[in-house]
Amino acid sequence: MASRMLKFVNVQRQMPDKRGVEARAHDFDEIYGEFAPQDAAEQSARCSQCGVPFCQVHCPVHNNIPDWLLLTAEGRLEEAYEVSQATNNFPEICGRICPQDRLCEGNCVIEQSGHGTVTIGAVEKFINDNAWEQGWVKPVKPLRERVESVGIVGAGPGGLACAEQLRKQGFQVTVYDRYDRMGGLMIYGIPNFKLEKEVVERRTRLLADAGVEYVTQCEVGRDVGLQELRERHAALLLATGVYKARDIKLPGVGLDNVYPALDFLVASNRKGLGDVVPAYEDGTLNAEGKDVVVIGGGDTAMDCVRTAVRQGARSVKCLYRRNRQNMPGSQREVANAEEEGVEFVWLAAPEAFDGDTAVSRVRAQRVHLGVPDATGRQAPQILPDSSFELPADMVIKALGFDPEDLPVLFDCPELETTRWGTVKVRYPSLATSLEGVYAAGDIVRGASLVVWAIRDGRDAADSITRFLDEKATATATAAIAAD
Ligand code: FAD
Ligand code: SF4
Ligand code: SF4
Questions:
Q1: pLDDT averaged over consecutive 10-residue blocks of the chain (483 residues)?
Q2: Where in the chain is the domain with CATH 3.50.50.60?
Q3: I want to staple 285 with a disulfide (CB 3.0 to 4.6 A). Which of 279, 293, 436, 472 is the partner?
Q4: What is 7-134's CATH topology?
Q5: CA 194 to ligand 3 centroid distance, Å
Q6: What pLDDT digit, counting tens, does each position of 154-175 carry?
């Protein structure tokens, strides 16, 4: 291997081409292109094939990164695909939207030594997009079918990763979702310019071809009870995500044109998917021609500001109470937003929303970051007499999400939750307080990442398999004893 690898000293880090601002700020297409095969090989060859690969350690699904980089550098792309898909159910999705700077790439030793990280995410995307093009991606075919059925509540990455892993074992799998499309936030939350919807839809079609049954527009707790599902299936997974938008209590927050982030993003994604969206058509959830102020500094806020730019907003500002270094959103996305014309108002907190019936401006105050608190983060402190105003005829609140009250929604007080409202599980099995019911993804972790939901879905599938194996063995043993 060695002669082909370790090229990081002479070969510069290079990302696939990014579309220019003029072109990309007016449409919802993805902004990054694809590596040409020779570029993917050259970039992969920068890897030093570490004995202890920190990239892999810090990848939540522990992708075998050095191996697929070596295979890509050698042009053995089908083998690279096989290695890549062995640990990740949605590798080309993670290659697009993982915050690599905080995970694999941020821990690459070449990055640490100042040479610029190996472009792991872009290579992962290349390997798997290429596999789709070549027809190597095939639906799972279990070696034998099993009679036990498993119900999965929620068709986001957690639920779908679990579904695919369970089909590999031959279980009969039914996924229930309250939406009309499968994919969870990958379909309705994350905008097309980060993750084109066809990339998600080809994966959900693949699972259907593998025999996973989908029940859409079925809200568990309303259209079917949790207890009924427990009786229908031998085991259940709860992967319902977190959807209760956090709010702020400020004067004027109830004015028209002040919206939660997900309402805005779902409308935009539905429009892009070809749905008729009355609240978009009548201008309510359309930023065209408006002065937009987005409040928050996470990835959801970044998605809102960049969506508003693409809808043709007159101005887009992002109000965040900390500074750039302390914001939770990916630095790559902040840089992209700045390039696209978003103005960041750092160290500023909203004070009130003014207007008659609809908002016309945001009053805000300057913030100073004080000494670190118990969590280690500097506490924001309002500076006296520092009020200022921003014109706004649309305000979007992107302040994070909390879990819905599942024990109440499911009419199941025995389902234990944590003090944050997330479902309480035992580790490492992810078993809940209900026998045969497991949980995965955001509903366990709180708002997190696609790759962590995949990891949980895979872990839960292993636990469910063990649970059903033990049950099958116990039944067989009892039958023999009764003979
Ligand atoms: P979800 O994806 O939320 O899926 C849960 C599913 O359960 C949904 O389809 C929902 O309809 C369904 N459901 C809920 N309740 C019920 C019920 N009672 N009955 C039936 N169905 C139900 N992560 C990244 O890694 N990179 C990013 O760039 C990124 N960007 C994001 C941008 C936005 C705007 C948001 C909101 C999140 C973003 N995330 C990102 C986070 C990521 O999307 C989530 O962490 C991930 O989708 C969680 O997966 P999940 O399977 O737990 O839940
Ligand atoms: Fe990096 Fe995410 Fe891929 Fe893991 S899954 S290698 S963290 S991009
Ligand atoms: Fe290669 Fe970087 Fe991973 Fe080391 S840490 S194996 S150099 S990608």
A1: 77 94 94 95 96 97 98 97 98 96 93 90 98 98 97 98 98 98 98 97 98 98 97 98 95 96 98 96 97 96 98 97 87 92 97 96 95 82 95 96 96 97 98 98 97 98 98 92 87
A2: 149-242+403-482, 248-400
A3: 279
A4: Fumarate Reductase Iron-sulfur Protein; Chain B, domain 2 (1.10.1060)
A5: 25
A6: 999 999 999 999 999 999 999 9
Residue with tokens 């105003």: 389
C-beta of 108 in contact with ligand 3 (< 6 A): yes
Task: Count CB atoms within 10 A of the CB of residue 140.
Answer: 19
In this prediction, residue 3 carries a pLDDT of: 66
Half-sphere exposure of 270 (CA within 13 A, CB side): 18
- Ligand 3 pocket test: which of 4, 44, 48 has the largest number of ligand atoms within 8 Å of its C-beta? 48
Ligand in closest contact with the CA of 220:
1
121 lines ligand 1 (CB under 6 A): no
Can you give the pLDDT at residue 376? 79
- The residue whose two tokens read 């024990």 is 407
Question: What DSSP string describes 31-43?
Answer: SB----HHHHHHH
Minimal CA–CA distance to 286: which of 301, 271, 296, 297?
271
90 alpha carbon to ligand 2 midpoint, in Å?
10
pLDDT digits (tens, 9 = 90+) for 306-344: 999 999 999 999 999 999 988 887 888 999 999 999 999
What is the dotted CATH code of the domain comprising 248-400?
3.50.50.60
